[in-house]
Amino acid sequence: MTRKLDNNVAIVTGAGGGFGEGIAAHFAELGAKVVVADIRGDAAQKVAAAIEAAGGQALPVQADITQQAGWAALVQAALAKWGRIDTLVNNAGTTHKNQSMLEVDEATFDRVYATNVKSLYWGALAVVPVLKKQGQGGAIINIASTAAARPRPGLTWYAGTKGAAVTITKGMAAELAPDRIRVTAINPVMGQTGLFTDFLPGDNDEATRARIIATIPLGRFSTPLDIAKACAFLASADAEFITGVALEVDGGRCI
């Protein structure tokens, strides 16, 4: 039986855990050949090994996506292993702790913008020329955030990076459409990933979690599989006429 992503070669950044791990695993289940990229080499290897143990195809690559050299290594690895690239999921991201915008120091600000915004620049410079040369289009999916659409106190600078990601998505979509390269974004609501406690406006206790869940109409946090399913749709032929959108996967948070 043909699967939704059969023969699709996908690079997933930040795939050593959280949303990225879920995306990589789900893509592999749907037939994709996945480059599992993470700055933590051991985490990338663990996820790739689990995918292969489940019958999928995965290649772990340690890469710093804030640096051009990291992207060169990712592209080279994908092409050496599978000869092409079809999909890029820019999932790697970070944040500052939920706090006053005046208390975020410059080094933290620079780290968040390098990871969440500049990585999109380096990724485009590395991957778009490959997609253009192949001449068969492709898909780029940027993991943004509900913070792009509904910023909240305490995460101002983080929200700015995700607003930039959405605007960059739309600009790229318009510019790359003649090459049939579709560019979309996903705005997840908060999920219990490695960054969970930094996002919380208080201690990681039942009361704080309940306060957040009360703002989500469907009544729960997001899961990696929620985000993975949305990514798989946007990467597939089912979404061949969809570009430039920022899909909210948020249980109604942004209503």
Q: Please report the total strand number as a whole number.
A: 7
Which shape, going by the Cα principal axes? globular
What would you say the CATH architecture is? 3-Layer(aba) Sandwich
- On the 0 to 100 scale, the average pLDDT is 96
CATH topology: the name is: Rossmann fold
Largest sheet: 7 strands, parallel
Question: Secondary-structure element sequence?
Answer: EHEHEHEHEHHEHHHE
Beginning-to-end CA distance, first to last residue: 38 Å
Which percent bin holds the helix content? Answer: 40-55%
Give me the CATH superfamily.
NAD(P)-binding Rossmann-like Domain
The CATH class designation is Alpha Beta
Helix/strand class = alpha/beta
Strand percentage = 5-15%
Gyration radius (Cα, Å) is 17 Å
Total domains, how many? 1
Strand order of the largest sheet: 3-2-1-4-5-6-7
Low-confidence stretches: none
Query: What is the count of DSSP helices, taking H or I runs of 4+ residues?
Result: 9
Can you summarize this structure?
Helices cover 46% and strands 15% of the residues. It is α/β, with parallel strands linked by helices and 255 residues long. A seven-stranded parallel beta sheet has the order 3-2-1-4-5-6-7, with helices on both faces.
Strands, helices and their partners?
Blueprint: E1 9-12, H1 18-29, E2 33-38, H2 41-53, E3 57-62, H3 68-82, E4 87-90, H4 106-134, E5 138-143, H5 146-149, H6 156-176, E6 181-188, H7 196-199, H8 206-213, H9 224-235, E7 246-249
Parallel strand pairs: 1-2, 1-4, 2-3, 4-5, 5-6, 6-7
